[in-house]
Design brief:
Elements lengths: L9 H13 L9 H4 L3 H18 L6 H14 L15 H33 L24 E4 L4 E4 L17 E3 L3 H6 L5 E10 L2 E12 L7
Parallel strand pairs: 2-3
Antiparallel strand pairs: 1-2, 1-5, 3-4, 4-5
Helix pairs in contact: 1-3, 1-5
Length: 225
């Protein structure tokens, strides 16, 4: 019997499906691809996914019990394989089709993420939003030396720091304005289109004072040094 313990989580099930998607020939030992592998290599692959699944938790199982879990997953999804011969049960083709469906699902999620990212970039490539209260708006020379900005997942942009040297002057952002506590040199080297963990601050006399909070932010592709 399988050892008693926590049930397999949705994260573990998805990781197991992803693993079999990459190594679908492991689903059935009699497949041609599987026979081309040595027994040691097959054991090594299962040990690899077993270690990853156990590390993810909460369920902790042996490699053999994870193989049984895979068979159970296939059985739960047999309704999706009604075109297969009655009584055939799970086989490499069935597992491949299940994994293919999971792969398509992951592609759809990735496309949605890319679409959301493109929408965010359109907002970042424009000027920084007006973060002042009331109707007060400060123009710091957009065509000459604009303040650098970063955008969050809500498509809101905030200034990086609260002051910078510009044409012999040192313009500052109004007190109370939200900002990111990030040096200009660090902003210069940030890779566009990648999410970063950014500390939040508030402008006070030209200084971005750390508020001891963080949020995820991204540098737009069109942002210049």
């Amino acid at each position: 019997m399988a050892p008693k313990g926590p049930r397999m989580s949705a994260v573990q099930e998805e990781e197991l499906l992803d693993f079999l998607e990459q190594h679908v020939f492991l689903a059935r030992a009699s497949t041609e691809l599987s026979q081309s592998l040595t027994a040691a290599r097959r054991r090594a692959l299962w040990d690899e996914i077993t270690e990853a699944l156990n590390r993810a938790g909460p369920a902790v199982k042996t490699a053999e019990h994870w193989r049984r879990s895979w068979r159970q997953i296939c059985c739960r999804k047999r309704a999706e394989l009604a075109h297969l011969r009655a009584g055939q049960g799970w086989n490499a083709l069935a597992c491949f089709r299940i994994c293919l469906n999971n792969y398509i699902h992951n592609i759809m999620k990735a496309l949605l993420y890319i679409g959301a990212s493109c929408f965010l970039l359109l907002a970042l490539n424009g000027s920084a939003e007006n973060t002042q209260t009331g109707e007060e708006y400060h123009d710091y020379g957009t065509d000459t030396c604009p303040f650098p900005v970063l955008g969050n997942k809500s498509l809101k942009t905030k200034f990086v720091g609260c002051r910078q040297e510009c044409n012999g002057g040192i313009p500052t952002i109004a007190d109370g304005s939200p900002c990111y506590v990030i040096d200009r040199d660090v902003w210069d080297w940030m890779v566009p289109l990648l999410w970063h963990n950014c500390p939040l601050g508030e402008c006070e006399k030209g200084v971005c004072v750390d508020q001891h909070k963080k949020e995820t932010c991204m540098k737009g592709k069109g942002e210049k040094k």
